[in-house]
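User: structure tokens for this one?
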Amino acid sequence: MGDVQPWPGSGHPGYPAQQAQPMAAQAQPMAQMRAAHTDRDRTVDVLKAAYAEGRLSAEEYSDRFDAANRAQTYGQLAQLVADLPAGPVVTPMAAPMAAPMAMPVPPTFLPPTRPAPNNGLAISALVFGLLCVPSVGTLAIPAVVTGHLARRQIRQTKESGDGMATFGLVLGYLSLAGWSLLLLLGAVAFSAHGG
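Assistant:
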């Protein structure tokens, strides 16, 4: 794992009491990058989980917690959790060819991914479905058509909006059924009065 070593804190059995050695800037440029408050918070979350699971004693947790709040770089944070599950392993940007491959950074320490955008037809289906009741059902057919098209596109593109498309479909079908029933009852009433 390159120069990132497990936390050499005092009182930890198996590790001598020593200060963490700084990493060479050329071998681990990412390890020298300045850490933000959110990076420290994520490291503390890993430490909390390790303490709750019994991987760290109270003293080890306290020492590492204090060190995480003082850490200035990714490398310092990585050293605190290198011997714990889900701890970050700094991946070098330009590691020397002879250096061993570092493991990728766990998902816990990656920036959040952006959710998939909503499908435009799904939004249209929902709007048509909501508007079809006050508009005497004239928008029920567009709600049903766009709802089916949106669901087909969503299956292919993996976009968001399946719930909106389904809701627009349901409203469209309910509106069609309601207005059809109303027209049928009107026709029956007209024929009863006319006959």
